[in-house]
Amino acid sequence: MSLPIGSPGFQAVDWEERLNTDRLRNYRFGRARAALEASELGALLLFDFNNIRYVTSTHIGEWARDKMTRFALQTRGGQPHLWDFGSAAKHHRLYCPWLPPENIRGGMIGLRGAVAPDAGLFTGAAREIKAILRAEGVADMPIGVDLVEPPMLAALQAEGITVLDAQQVMLNAREVKSPDEIMLLNQACAMVDGAYQLISEQLKPGVRESDIVANVTKLLYDLGSEHVDNINAVSGERCSPHPHVFSDRIIRPGDQAFFDIIQTFVGYKTCYYRTFVVGRASDAQRDAYKQAREWIDASIDMMRPGVMTDQVAAVWPKAEEFGFSSEMEAFGLQFGHSVGLFLHERPIISRLNSLEHPVEIKEGMVIALETYCPAKDGYSAARIEEEVVVTADGPQVITKFPSDELFVANPY
What we know:
By secondary structure, the chain is of the alpha+beta class. The protein is built from 10 helices and 16 strands. It has a 6-stranded mixed sheet. Helix 1 crosses helix 6 (167-174), helix 4 packs across helix 5 (150-158) and helix 7 packs across helix 8. The chain is globular, with a radius of gyration of 23 Å. The two termini are 45 Å apart.
C-alpha cells in the first residue's frame, strides 16, 4: 500500500522519514544532467532563478530575482559552475558542500544595464565561460541559455559560441517531481489551508481586500514561507471581469469574493484559489459556483498518466460560452499548469494552446487546475483552483480547504 502524501512539518527528526535534502538535490541534478545529455547542447547557461536553484540548490533571496547578475553553467558530464552576487559566493563555498568550491565565483555583469556594457563585464564573463567550455571538452557544441540580456548574448557570440534555447531542456527536466518535491508542494498547500481558515474568519463587512492580504501575508511568514509572491483578493463588482490584483475595496454584505494565494516554501510554490460569499449567497452566485465546480471536477478526473492535454482542455467551455471574444482574451481562466520551483511549468493546459499542441500527462506531475464562471447577476463570479498530484492510482488533490460547495463566510 502506498503511503499518503506527507506534510510532516519543518523540523528534522530522527524518528520519522521527512524531507531528505540530499536526495532532493541529487534528484534535481540528475534530471538536469539527463535532459542536457538528451539534447543537442554541450552546456546549459542559466540565468533563470528557478533553473539555477534546480541545478545548484542555491538561493540568495527574492530581492535578486530581477537583477540578471547571478548565473550557472552546467556542461555535459561536469559539475555545476556558479557565479553569484559578491559575498554570496564565499558563503556558498563555506556552506554548500555539494558544490565544488573551485566552481563558485563572484559574479557581476551589470545589474540590467546599470553598469553599461562598455565596462566590459559581459565580455569578461563570456571569455570565462568559453574557457570552461574548452576545458570541459564542449567548446565545439552549442550551448543553451534560458534568459539573457542582449549584451550578454552578443558577448557569447563574439567568442564564437552558438547559443540555442535552454528553457525547453530545463522544463523537460523539471516536469516530473520527486517524492521530496511533492512533499514540499504539499506542505506549502497546508500553509495555504491555514490561510483560508483565517480568511473565512476575517471576511466580513467593513474589512478591506488589502486588510485580508496583509493578515494572510503575515500568517504565511509566521508559518515559514520563504516568500509571499502574490495574493489576489477580488470582491463584489470587481469579480467580473477578473482583474488579477487586490485593491482597498471594502467588503460588503452579500459580496462574492475569491482569492489566489501564491507563496513559496523551500523554493516550491502554491497556486490556490478559493471563493467565498459574505453573509448570504444569491441564487446567481450559487449557480456560478456550481458550474465552476463541475468544470474543475471534470478536469481533475482527467489527471491520469497517458491522458493528453487536449483531452483535458476539451472538458472546459469555449471562451464565447462564458463571455469572452477569444481564447487569448480568456486565457488563464479555464487553465491548468504544473507547479514547482516556478509557478507555471510544463504542461500548460488551455484551449488556446493544448487543442492543437497536446502533451502527455505523466505520473509525478503536480498540476494546478483552475476554473472561472461569471454569475448571471453581471458582476459576481466563482473561481476555484485545485493542485493535483498525478499518480498511477489516479489524481490526488493536495489543496484541502473545503470547496465542494460555495463557502459562506460569517453567515447571518
